[in-house]
Amino acid sequence: MWLHTHLIQDMLSICREVFKGGVHYAWASVPTYPSGVIGFLLCAKDGPPVDFLTPVNPIEKIEGATKDGREMRFYNSEIHRAAFILPTFVKRELEAYNTSTEKEKPEKPAAKPVKMKVMRDSAITAS
Question: Model's pTM, two decimal places?
Fold first, then answer.
């Protein structure tokens, strides 16, 4: 976002034409990446709008995720939601192209939560 906001605008525009279930831009700090930030486009092909901002299966609620030293040291639901909060200059530029990530609210969730469990061998199973 520091170097190529115009490319983000172009990609959002293209993805919104193709993916009708939802398109959102998010970012994360990656110190080894040029400018220290990498961006992500999350897209859903079709169906009801997808609420990418709220984890369907919050890591804090996965059975066994915080036991036996398996807890995530960085990622959590708050970090997930914060990835969609954009700096003012980026938000302003993207809103100029009608791509604000904060104004889109899904009508209803697209997916039902799945009960997940972290196993001793670090595998994650879903039921």
Answer: 0.61
